[in-house]
């Protein structure tokens, strides 16, 4: 009973959550790019399939639930794409999803400091990503980048864990156009 | 006359060192490329191809340096004992032996650039790309690299065969003039 009263109180004092506005990402204009050092030179590739739900309330980002299909990795080199799907890297048959679920967001204008749980290849870690929103032709664009240590997620095991030839740091650039969701 | 410079009868030490330096590197580069390119995607492939690209760019610079040096210090004229036709063939072959390595290395560099696999020269110097990553052009440059390298290998067979002919059949001074003095005494 006490719980119910509390809940009612919370709802009454925070009507914002009731007016939460959720969006999904549009395939057009959205992308995830990764950068990593190979043999001392920067290398760039993309992931082609990802999706997510992003919710706002009164201009503040309230939550994100995103997932990426590591099998959609696209480097332009078919042999490399194939290798990246194997067990040394993403092991896509066993781990078909990379996920990010927000736990807390602090919005300041168009900058949204988002903490959440990133899960890659069964390894979960708390990360913080600063996301930026801006209007884009009547829609909202959201983007952000962050750097992770691939070894913490077992991406590139065995010989590939040699960071002289394949850098440990992977920079991800994420951008999406948001469409009003269900 | 300084032995470092070319004379009427012989190449000077500088031209000789450059000739054999480039020759040695090319003889390493060919098997290195074959070995690396046929490895499966692996750290070893990444590593050996990285050495291949660094060594290839070194060869490019040295061949260009040879061309500059040849312009500064003219090579000895071919012996008059050779027929006009033979001298023409030798000159054309030598031109090709400068041109084809340059084109082959440029094709390799273009391929590496188009594939997005930029070169860091022996881990010391990041080399700029010739063109932006372009996955449509990359396979074309790869084929071009293979074709030009194949052409270079054919030219070298002809070049070494011709050198052997001079040393063993014609027994003129053409072979010893690119070798250090006294290596092949004329009988
Ligand atoms: C066993 C290997 C080789 C042998 C025996 C050899 C022999 C010779 C000889 C005897 C000459 C002098 C020709 C003359 O007197 O006019 C020469 C010149 C030349 N060689 Fe080689 N060579 C070898 C490998 C190479 C390689 C790998 C290259 C690579 C591109 C090369 C490029 C040249 C060029 C461009 C010249 C002309 C130099 C000039 O007059 O500017 N050679 N070589
Ligand atoms: C005179 C210089 C060079 C020679 C003789 C040479 C020779 C070769 C050979 C024999 C291969 C193997 C072809 C195959 O069987 O697949 C190869 C592959 C390759 N070369 Fe070179 N190369 C030279 C310069 C370069 C340079 C300067 C670069 C780049 C900066 C380069 C980049 C590559 C790459 C990336 C491959 C692998 C392509 C593949 O997957 O087949 N090469 N090269």
Please describe what this structure looks like.
The complex is a heterodimer of chains A (182) and B (187). Chain A has 182 residues and is mainly β. Chain A has 3 helices and 10 strands, in the order H-H-E-E-E-E-E-H-E-E-E-E-E. Chain A has one domain (21-180): Beta Barrel (Lipocalin), CATH 2.40.128.110. In chain A, strands 1-3-4-6-7-8-9-10 form an 8-stranded antiparallel barrel. The radius of gyration of chain A is 19 Å and the shape is elongated. Chain B is an all-alpha fold and 187 residues long. A two-stranded antiparallel sheet of chain B has the order 1-2. In chain B, a hairpin with a 3-residue loop joins strand 1 (120-121) and strand 2. Chain B is elongated, with a radius of gyration of 19 Å. Chain B starts with 12 loop residues before the first helix and ends in a 17-residue tail after the last helix. Chain A binds chain B through residues 38-45, 75-77, 79-80, 82-83, 159-160, 162, 164-166, and chain B through 40-44, 46-47, 49-50, 115-120, 123, 126-127, 133, 135, 138. Residues 19, 22-23, 26, 70, 75, 78, 94, 97-98, 101, 156, 159-160, 163, 174-175, 177-178 of chain B line the site of one protoporphyrin IX containing FE (HEM).
Which structural traits does this protein have?
heterodimer; A: 182 residues; mainly beta; Lipocalin; eight-stranded antiparallel β-barrel; 13% helix; elongated; B: 187 residues; mainly alpha; Fumarate Reductase Cytochrome B subunit; two-stranded antiparallel sheet; 4 helices; 2 strands; 2% strand; binds protoporphyrin IX containing FE
User: Mind telling me which CATH architecture of chain B this is?
Assistant: Up-down Bundle
Nearest-integer average pLDDT of chain B? 95
| SS class of chain A | mainly beta
Instruction: Report the CATH architecture of chain A.
Output: Beta Barrel
The largest sheet of chain A, given as strand count, sense and whether it forms a barrel, is: 8 strands, antiparallel, barrel
Radius of gyration of chain B: 19 Å
The multimeric state of the shown protein is heterodimer
Total count of strands of chain B? 2
Strand order within the widest beta sheet of chain A: 1-3-4-6-7-8-9-10
- Determine the fraction of residues in helical runs of chain B and give it as a percent range: 55-70%
User: Which descriptor suits the 3D outline of chain B?
Assistant: elongated
Distance between the termini of chain A: 33 Å
CATH class of chain A: Mainly Beta
Nearest-angstrom radius of gyration of chain A?
19 Å
Helix count of chain A? 3
List the ligand species: protoporphyrin IX containing FE
